[in-house]
Design goal:
about 0% strand, mainly alpha
Amino acid sequence: MARKEKTVIFLLALASIILISIPPKLLILQHGGISFLIIVAATATIFISLLEIKQERFIKGMSLIALAVAFPLLYTPYLSLMLLPNKIPQDFMEQLEVFIQVIVLACSGSGGSIIANYGDTNTTDFLKHKPISSPPDNTQNIEKLITQGKNLNNKLNLLIGVSTAALATALLALLINLLK
């Protein structure tokens, strides 16, 4: 496992532990603002760690969607269990609800996009067409064709002229023969 991977996994674990342990203790000590900032920082670290971890796209997308589902379902009740509901300041709960909605949108949106990208690259529900290559440059061949066409036209005009002269000569000979 690469050093970056180990760092990402360590940050993921550390942020999860901080998210679970420190904010309730700060709320007990009446430090709602600091507690909220720690929740935001830890959740952002978890989100970025899930994006940075080397996994298949489908697993990465499902992990982000799982965070979007689990965070609102588990974290608010967890805080209520750790503290008496009347100990949690009302403005803190309102800020937490807004933040939870942001996390749900961010995680589910990015997870869904990653899964959609995975689906686009790994499904074969349509025929892949070869890209249309640009046609070769035939400018010189067109110039040749125009020259050959002009030569052919001149030869055809000469043939028509000779045929007309031969026909006129034949008609004149016939007319002279009839008049004799």
